[in-house]
UniProtKB/TrEMBL annotation:
GO terms for biological process: glutathione metabolic process; L-phenylalanine catabolic process. The lineage of its organism: Eukaryota, Sar, Stramenopiles, Oomycota, Saprolegniomycetes. Residues 6-87 form the GST N-terminal domain. It comes from Aphanomyces stellatus. It comes from the Eukaryota. GO terms for molecular function: glutathione transferase activity; maleylacetoacetate isomerase activity. Residues 92-224 form the GST C-terminal domain. The gene is Aste57867_22479. This is Aste57867_22479 protein. GO terms for cellular component: cytoplasm.
C-alpha cells in the first residue's frame, strides 16, 4: 500500500512485544517516530478503518518511505537494509543467520502462542476465577520450553548482550519477550544468562525510551 512520505508512523499497542521490537529498533537507529495506538485489548485492530490499512488486522504496522509495512520481522529487515547504521546484524553471513535463528525461536515459536487472542481462546471455557492461573500456566509452558533453548545457545555466544558485547537483533527480540514472561509470572531462575542480559537491556535507551509505560496507551495494561 503506497502512502505519502512522512516521518515514520508506528501503529502499535504499548504492551505488544512485536510492536516493541519495532519501536526499539527505530530508537536504536536514531529515528524518531509518531505513534498511533491500536488497542488490541479493545479490539481496535478489528475495526474497519484498521482493516483497510492492514487487511491482516495485526500489529505492528509501520508507515515509512511512502509505504506501509507489516509483520515485525519484515519491518526490522527493511530497517536494517535501508538504515544499516548503527547495525543490528554483523557483516558475517553465518553470524547473521545464527542471530536470525535465535530471533525466530522467539518470533515464531514462543510469542505467537502466548499472544492476546490465543490466551483468550484457551481461557474462555474456564471459570472466571481460574482464567488468570490458566493463562499463566499456558504461557509458562511455552516460554520455559523456548527459553531453555535460548539459554543453551547463549552459553556459546553471550557477552554483555546476546551476541558478545554488541547490541544486535537478538537483543531486540529477547527483552520484550522477557518482559512478557515476567508479566505472566514465569519463573526465570532456570535462565540466569537470559536474566542477566535482560537486566542489562533494561538500562538501554532503545528500550527505556520505548517502554510500554512511556507510550500513550501505556497505562491500559491487561492480563489478557
Amino acid at each position: 500500500m503506497k502512502m505519502a512520505a512522512c516521518r515514520p508512523v508506528v501503529y502499535s499497542f504499548g504492551k505488544s512485544s512485536c510492536s516493541w521490537r519495532v519501536r526499539a529498533a527505530l530508537a536504536f537507529k536514531g529515528f524518531p517516530f509518531d505513534y498511533v495506538s491500536v488497542n488490541t485489548k479493545r479490539g481496535e485492530n478489528l475495526s474497519e478503518a484498521y482493516r483497510k490499512l492492514n487487511p491482516n488486522q495485526k500489529i505492528p504496522a509501520l508507515s515509512i518511505d511512502g509505504t506501509l509495512l507489516t509483520q515485525s520481522s519484515a519491518i526490522l529487515a527493511y530497517l536494517e537494509e535501508t538504515r544499516p547504521d548503527p547495525p543490528l546484524l554483523p557483516s558475517d553471513p553465518l553470524q547473521r543467520a545464527d542471530i536470525r535463528s535465535f530471533c525466530d525461536i522467539i518470533g515464531a515459536d514462543i510469542q505467537p502462542i502466548q499472544n492476546l487472542a490465543v490466551l483468550r481462546e484457551i481461557s474462555k471455557n474456564v471459570p472466571k476465577e481460574e482464567e488468570a492461573a490458566t493463562r499463566d500456566k499456558w504461557v509458562a509452558k511455552w516460554v520455559t520450553r523456548g527459553f531453555g533453548a535460548l539459554e543453551s545457545r547463549l552459553q556459546g555466544t553471550a557477552g554483555k548482550y546476546c551476541y558478545g558485547d554488541s547490541f544486535t537483533l537478538a537483543d531486540i527480540y529477547l527483552f520484550p519477550q522477557v518482559n512478557n514472561a515476567r508479566f505472566f509470572h514465569v519463573d526465570l531462575t532456570p535462565f540466569p544468562t537470559i536474566t542477566r542480559i535482560a537486566n542489562t537491556l533494561a538500562t538501554e535507551d532503545a528500550f527505556a525510551s520505548t517502554h510500554p509505560s512511556k507510550m500513550p496507551d501505556g497505562e491500559d495494561t491487561f492480563k489478557a
